[in-house]
Amino acid sequence: MVRKEDKKSSERSYRPGLNRRAFLALTGAATGLGIVPSSVAADYQAVTDVPGFSCEKPQFTCGREVRAADGMVSSVDPIASAVAATILREGGNAVDAAIALQYVLTVTQPHGSGIGGGGFMVIYDAETGTVDIVNSRERASRNAEVDQFLDEDGTVIPFAQRIQLGEAMGVPGTVRGLETARELYGTRPRQRLIEPAIRLARKGFTVDAFLASQIAAHTGKFNDAALETFTDDDGTLFEVGDTMTNPDLADTLRLIRRDGAEAFYEGPIAEDMAATIREHAREPERVVDEEDLAVYDVTLDEPVRENWYGYELVSQPPPSSGGAIVYYILKLFELLGGEEYGIRSPEKYHILAEAQSVAWADRNAFFGDPEFVDVPLEGLLSEAYLAERADLIEIGSTVYDLPGWATSSQPGSPRDFQSMGAPASAELSGATTHFSVVDRWGNAVSYTSTIEQFMGSGKMVPGRGFLINNQLTDFSATPEGPNRVEPRKRPLSSMSPSMVLADGEPILTAGSPGGVRIITATAHAILHSIVYDLDPLDAIVEPSVFTNNLRPVHYETGVPDDARAQTAEWGLVWGNVETHGNVQVIEIGDELIGAADPTRDGQAVGFDRAGGRRHGRGR
Asked: Do 457 and 168 touch, CB atoms closer than 8 A?
């Protein structure tokens, strides 16, 4: 990435065959149906924990949805967004800002992300026009065994117990991933990018409502080190508005600042981490140890890149199913002419629900770590195969009426359409959150990171200040299928950090946390933005529906009663009202528009070099 003082034109050309505003006008897909956008503007969240930053400064615009010319950040945490925006102001690029943001999330959002976990970073390089992925997914120990989640009688260990075991803790990848991204694309020294997180851990930050709720909800799985970190000097759990410090984490980050990733994967930190994992293992010889940590490395992946409505959808390949299944669902929608139907019509919800059922059958049957499993990705994503799968879906009936589909949807035969195999990963020597960053030169990052469950395993490394993931629970608990446990294998994921490109340049970044609902949340946000032409915040809050290869269709508030009644007549079985994900979106056009999902306390922050205040929703 090179800093380009002559900023590229941000105009984007759209596919002539899909005039979005024209078909919206004809079909009444949005306002023509009398639907009022469901987003509600709220005051921006003041940030007082970041030196040199204020939402009142003319260079910055803060809120749920904001506009700017020279940089944009959208994340679940206003403090982290502010830190990333200051890096952009100083001349750092999108990767620099993303690295600083992720280190801060280790401090301020330890329930969902951190250096004890892993993730996927999708990077668009404006200079070369290329998209690369730094894959820092956690790995199983070299000593892992296929039956490690079964008890002595061969019965699956209950999930509530399994998530706290040392056997559930994978080799963390985040630190190696951040250092790899910085070495390949960064322009700022590690010391500058990690310093804001050190300062926050040392001097303290304001606890938000979601962190306070997660601390209270997960005390039952905390070890002593975690309980000590999440309580004040009087032994009281931190609450909303309290100032929380984490001096142990500050010391850990200082060592990484000085010595890089080696400080984390070798020496005292690694020894302490391995000891903590062993302490909580049923069979200590099976779990991650010092050697597993020392040999860990990331991979550089070729993204999933597929055409959709004349655009290019770019996302994470296996070992995440997310990018492929997001595309699979959206492509079925296109093949079935879903754009002909209104945004809250029965037909739209029916197509999306049925497409998810069909897609999830193939996900469960074929996806796993491509270093261990022959994933027929080319066949799965070929238009001929997807057209065959789309033919199973009809308005007025359900796929569950098909022979053999009564209780669960069934996979197809994608290997019949396979010729070249799945995209390769190139090894490079050497509960989840999502955020997006775009800089003044057009570089973009879409990054989803995780420690798996909220608060991960609940086990904090004593004296080190960070929680260890329980990512290996993403493996199949039973010793069968493409996602079974194997030594050094990476578990299947649903993370879906995505970009939409037009003429080779990004026009949208999107992604979400949410476990298996990540795919649904991301796909709906992209669909609502691109096909239904909603602004980013409205695209996020427009209600979605979720299902997998089983029948109930769960839905968000706002799905009309009459749409559910009509689709029930066609065979859909409706389940519970719930919230799907926490989406962060940046739209890239004549200006940058960032939006943060209002289901948590996130915030978008825009940057303007000229210091002219832009307008935004939520200000």
From this structure: yes
